[in-house]
Specification:
Keywords: Membrane, Transmembrane, Transmembrane helix. It is a single chain. This protein is an all-alpha fold and 195 residues long. It has one domain. It contains five helices and no strands.
Length: 195
């Protein structure tokens, strides 16, 4: 009769290797690619609209009345900054989506930080949008709130997907790296025979 040892082994057993990328990592990649494409389509325009709509900036701030050319230079500088920030975010989201699929831990940590920042800034945007409204007490148009909450769903789903156990195992084993030296796990497919 077998009796188990009284103490556990000195070194813990390694977790079983994942041979395929987990679905949660794929879902996080899809969410990042959707945000990537959303930024490409409407990032700069949405950023400029948000600046002027929230009344953080006004056209009178550019002093067009005093010096028209200086006003246009100031406006062009603002547009350039917003477009450069949008391009930087697009590149960041694209790199993170690729590196998450490859199982890089730094990409997981940076994606979690970026998604938390997006989530917090989205709620701050909702709050400041209602605070900056000039018609206090007037019925609010719900479309802006609905679209903001829908856009906050993408970072939330990405965060949930990256916090699962299978995703953590994928990043712990660094993707498919440990599988490179192993023989194929499934038998080779039967070659196609033409008749």
């Amino acid at each position: 009769m077998y009796t188990p040892p009284a103490t556990p082994p000195a070194t813990p057993l390694p977790p079983e290797l994942l041979h395929r990328k987990p679905g949660t990592v794929t879902a996080a990649q899809v969410m990042l690619w959707l945000q990537f494409s959303f930024l490409i389509c409407c990032g700069a325009g949405g950023g400029l609209t948000a600046l002027f709509y929230s009344e953080a900036l006004n056209f009178s701030d550019f002093e067009f009345e005093e010096d028209l050319s200086q006003g246009f230079e100031n406006l062009a500088a603002l547009v350039t900054i917003v477009i450069a920030a949008t391009i930087a975010l697009v590149i960041l989201f694209g790199v993170l989506a690729v590196k998450i699929g490859a199982g890089r831990r730094w990409a997981q940590i940076l994606t979690i930080a970026v998604m938390l920042l997006a989530f917090v800034s989205g709620f701050i945007g909702i709050y400041t949008g209602f605070e900056a409204s000039s018609e206090v007490g007037a019925p609010a148009d719900g479309t802006r709130l609905i679209w903001t909450l829908l856009s906050l769903a993408m970072p939330l789903v990405t965060l949930i997907c990256l916090f699962t156990g299978s995703a953590n195992q994928w990043f712990r084993q660094r993707g498919r790296e440990p599988l490179k030296g192993l023989p194929p796990q499934s038998p080779p497919a039967v070659p196609y025979r033409s008749y």
